[in-house]
Amino acid sequence: MSNNITVYWAAPAVPKSFFQSPLNFNFSEPTKVLNVLRTNKTKEPQPQNVFSCPAHNSMLNNVYQVNSTQNYTFDLNQVHLTNSWPWYSHSYDFVSPRKCSLEGYSDIEPAYSWLFFASEPLVARFTAPYLPTISPADGSFLVCGEFDIGQWYRPFVLNYMVPKHVPYLTVLKNNPLFFVEFKTDKNIVFKQYESTESLYDYSGRCIRSPVEVGRSYTLEPRYNWLHETITTKVIIDEIEKNLV
Fold first, then answer.
1. Beta-carbon-side half-sphere exposure of residue 169 (alpha carbons within 13 Å)
2. Residue ranges of the chain with pLDDT lower than 70?
3. Alpha-carbon 147 to chain mean position
4. Is residue 56 exposed (0-12), middle (13-18) or buried (19+ Cβ within 10 Å)?
5. Is 91 exposed, middle or buried (0-12, 13-18, 19+ CB in 10 A)?
6. 3-class DSSP state of 25
7. What is the pTM for the complete model shown?
8. Cα separation of 190 and 27, whole Å?
9. Coil, strand, or helix at residue 162?
10. What would the pLDDT profile of 159-177 be if each residue is shown by its tens digit?
11. Sign of the torsion angle spanned by Cα atoms 195, 200, 203, 207
């Protein structure tokens, strides 16, 4: 049995021919957070440093960050309200896709999107950066979540809850946009690919699956639905044809 798991990733999640946003999508592949922290390790002798702590290293073993490759400011006074999918096909760099679930906040999505898929079942947890904590605006936070990227094929989109009084979101070059933790002890091998019309259709069907599956409070019925309809082999075969 191999000690490696392949994680395929694409950005943006939609075919580039569909994408009209002015944002730049030359993202580098995810970088291990522990390695990033080690680049700032003190050169002074530290017999009891955090990098020798097995609890710390175990927690961060398969935690990665994805960085921004540009500086960008989103003027929230220019927000577009839309519930159409994909709104990326419009020339917007961010939208408010739905009424916010929290009082006093706006639901904001910049046009950043990724499609991850794994060669075998693998739970991925997506969170805001926390080493150190980084937010594009005071009081805002990134909606987090986790699902099995070997059994579910849907985009991960940066979805922020932003206080209504906040006028701007500011993204800085080389700052992490999000962290992703892969819940495995195996080694992660990344392979980049480009989204295609077929892959975009598969991911869209996963997004719309509650219409067919029902709005279950667990993910298992959705995983079963994917295995019975699209199948993971079909997705991986199409991804392999479009590796970068």
1. 28
2. 19-26, 80-92
3. 11
4. middle
5. exposed
6. coil
7. 0.91
8. 13
9. strand
10. 999 999 999 999 999 999 9
11. positive
Tokens at 3, concatenated: 């000690």
Token reading at 231: 């199948």
Q: How distant is the alpha carbon of residue 170 from its chain centre?
A: 18
Report the percent of the chain where pLDDT is more than 70.
91
| CB distance 119 to 239 below 8 Å | no
User: Which stretches of the chain are DSSP H helices?
Assistant: 33-38, 54-59, 197-207, 210-213, 220-228, 232-240
Strands (E), 87-142: 94-96, 105-110, 113-118, 123-127, 141-142
User: Which pair of tokens denotes residue 71?
Assistant: 């500086």
The position carrying tokens 């896709």 is 97
200 CB neighbour count, 10 Å cutoff:
20
How many Å apart are CA 239 and CA 244, to the nearest integer? 10
